[in-house]
Amino acid sequence: MCVFTIQLQAQSGLETVLSDVAKNNKTLQTQSKYWDAQKLLYHTGNTLYDPVASYDFMRGSPYAIAGNQTDINVLQRFDFPTVYSKKKALAGEQSKQVDFSLTANRQEILLGAKKICIELIYRNKLQERIIERKTKTEKFLTDFQTKLDKGEGNVLDVNKAKLQLIEINKDYQLNISAINQLHQKLTELNGGIEIVFNDTIYPEYEPVPAFEELEETIEYKDPVRKYLTQQTVVAQKDIEVTKALTLPKFEVGFHYQGILGQQFYGAKVGVSIPLWENKNRVKQKQAELSVAEVQVARHKNEHYYHLKQLYEKYINLQKTVAEYEKVLSSINSIKLLDKALSFGEITTIQYFLEASYFYTATNNYLQAEKEYNDAIAELYQYLL
């Protein structure tokens, strides 16, 4: 088994958020208390039955001949002795399963919180660019309006700048609304304790290894697989308990009888004859074991292809992001457009049209970058 280590950098803010969510999340707190109660339940009932005491008083008739009869019985019932050790073993295996369930639930919730943070990083970066466009367009509008007032400009430039500013303001408000909603979701996951996450830098990772190596590590650490595998162990132990319960039950006790001035007392021993009470129970438990084994196989198959699709998505997004970064870093479209507009080489309409191509490409790059980081977060869910 090859297990590699991933180094995480530049994510202290993100790590703080995840640490807070792990500590404050109400769902995790509820599940922890629920499973604590379940552990107690698993170890409940593995004791002797309560003893039974009975007292009978029967008046005889005629009294002079029959007298009165008194009977006292004290009985203790118990299962076949091996039942108790097998129930204890079953409870132990069920308790182990609890830890896997808690781990899986924690990873699922922390992944949700991490993806919210990733979207907030995307939204914060997008907001910076929207503000940049907003500021530039407001300046254009002011300049165009000033020129128009002096009789040096034209109303078409002013109107075009106004229309552009309306669209930018719409994007500005929508993005602010999205950021606020994401903060609300993050606060909800944090148990109602407010979190403000203003980061604009994504976490940095060591290069993702080859799929086969990554899949092997993820499968080895997958808490859902461990939970389902443990379910087969639990089912096997349950079969052993059920088989033991088909064995005879015993009862021992004390019996006292008093009649006509005479007293009789002594031990009482009984044994059940296992004929039909537990009929088909073992077969039913064996069927449950078969279901558990199929669930393990199904999960492994589904998990493998889910990871394969996710890994392919990661590879494709990695290429897309790299291409965007290469192109966007090599061109300076906005500055060139500003220069062309200032020298009168292009009209205002041409300027805004050409600028929209650049901003659309930039927005698409930011979206691809977010999806790329989402894919990495899902691949590394097992580290949470």
From TrEMBL:
Gene3D superfamilies in alphabetical order: Outer membrane efflux proteins (OEP)
InterPro entries noted in UniProt: MdtP/NodT-like
Residues in coiled coil: 282-327
Keyword Cell cycle in record: no
Alphabetical UniProt keywords: Coiled coil
MF (Gene Ontology): efflux transmembrane transporter activity
Record protein name field: Outer membrane efflux protein
Organism, as annotated: Sphingobacterium spiritivorum
